[in-house]
Amino acid sequence: MTRLIVTDMDGTLLNDKRELPASIWETIAQLNEKGVMFAVASGRQYQTLADIFEPVRDKMLFMAENGTIVVNNGEVISTTALDRTLVHEFIDTARGLDDCHIVLCGAETAYVESTDARFLAKTGDYFHHKKIVDDLMEVDADVLKFTVCDFKNPENYSFKYFAPFSDRAQPAVASEIWLDIMPLYANKGAALRKMQEKLGISNSETIVFGDYMNDFEMMQYSENSYAMANAHPEILAISKFRTKLDNNHGGVIDTLRELGLVGG
After folding, report:
1. What top-level class would CATH report for the domain 4-79+186-258?
2. What is the pTM of this model?
């Protein structure tokens, strides 16, 4: 029996235009009628996700900022912050990289210091709540996730500069321009495990969907992991199943229909 559906957003539930499937609201309603919880596990900030799912935001589970903040039925269940000294080391490192821009992800807002127009345009899609500050070193707030917008491609460029921090934090390539660094042991997989325990839902009763490297731990942990047809090769390799359709053709909902969890 399935009791929990967990999906990543970008490259998974959303198409490449960052649009939700047209049938998403009907799908969530059908799942709720069957007693199946719908959840989103995303690198996006909670406020952005809550805006996107505003009609049902208090009836679903969010594992935002790659699992560093978890909100269930409108209630914040947990947050995990980076060490302040470590954040300052990250800032120093990122400031020395070419064509890279920093986002400090707080529980209530995101902080940026770069005013680069291309960068600010990209943050608009993912951070509905953000504040431009003069100096990120002066931000006095818990940082749940340190994000680098790397226009040179993080997998080939910025990741190697943050890999040496892997004994103190967890860097993960989130897309072709985003690199996320979370507290050590904080990731979507760890957040999912904690919520399953809290809700009394087993791993066998959970289905997850993902496509990129910040989904790695979640996909590896899940007994019913579905990599998107368009997923990163490493995600395809570790997932138990793959969707027939990609994110641009409603692969998540198509799979739920094939499994008989929702109607056509």
Report:
1. alpha beta
2. 0.91
